[in-house]
Design a protein that fits this description.
Length: 465
Amino acid sequence: MDGGDPVARLFHLQSSGAAARRATFGLTERRAALARLAGAIRARQAEIVAALATDFGKPEAEVVLTEILPLLQEIAHTSRHLGRWMRPRRVRAGLSAFGTSAQIVTEPKGTCLIIAPWNYPLNLALGPLISCLAAGNSAILKPSELTPATSALIADIVAETFANDLVAVVEGGREVAEALLALPFDHIFFTGSPEVGSRVMAAAAKTLASVTLELGGKSPCIIGPGADLAQAAKWIAFGKFTNAGQTCIAPDHVLVHASVAAPFKAALRHAINRLYPGGLASPDLTLVINDRHAQRLTHLLGEALDMGARLVTGGPSRGRRILPTVIEAVTPEMGLDRDEIFGPILPLLIYDDLPDALARIAARPKPLALYVFEKDRVLVEQVIAGSTSGSVGVNLTMLQFSHPFLPFGGVNRSGLGAAHGRWGFRAFSHEKAVLRNRFSPVPLLFPPYTARVRRLIALAQRMLG
């Protein structure tokens, strides 16, 4: 290890204290660490709001709703249940383990790396940290360089709240991330795109670090023929256009049944106008993160319109401010149909029967989220059973992310592993099997394999059916 490299020195500082933390960083200390973090978030709320306004114009209410409240809820939930999660769990013995006692003991994985994205830069940096500390680990946290004001504030909050042998922040771009990934962390938690996620997994393979990957994809939304269209429009407008559509579980596109397509379009226009009166002048519109992403989105929209797509509503933009936009007549040749949009543009696709809609979804990589709006429970169950996704929202969007008793994670290209609550604690923990011999009869089966031993083995075989 390069002793002159500050990142390597920081890693060495944390990793060398892993054994001591197992002995000294118990339930009381972990709860105290989480309480300090909650206190820091509350104390610095005004600065958090200001930093996110600087980085991409988030309105204060949206910052509180999507960045601060989920963190405070996660801390409260984790602190409340942590003692039970940490407690060794006794398990029953099978035939081969007769005469033994068994339990599962959780222990910290050790030194962890958390690489956070830019779209919810506070929530998705400190959320995994909560689980990491609850499991008894140390962490090096790398916020996104695309949100420099929030990144600097996170570094300041962490430095004020924790000693750097427990939690430290390293700021920087791709070179810093690559330097961190070259170190032998015990666990890596990454949130970002599938493309970068595959590189993180490849880097982790070199040191055999375990990983949790929260990725993304084109999360579909199905509108059934029996949907409450006003309810669906309201939830979809909220889920898609909050944070300017820069949300990994936002509805990427809507598959609407042909019989309700026209009234749904009208309901969606109405819902958007209610959420964002004043259009581009609405103070509740978040900005696209930077000029490059804004140009990508306007190019995708312009390309689709040139190829025959039609605007339902929206379209105009001003710099990084893009009006909530709905588009129809999208075809597979268009970039909007191929790529994850990750912005305030929502394609509407028409379907005639549910198997057709499910076939379209199955033809794409497995999404992080899937939404269905429908009153008929049989149709809803057909969607749930006939599709694969990280999560399903029924007659709502986005809310599954903040449910404390549900795992959050993707499947295949949309993610690996789960987070939040008990699942976050388990992601950062090693579940160690402990088996104690009391009066095991297994030595009766040891060699030499005499006739008597063979009869006992045959008896055991018969008992197993």
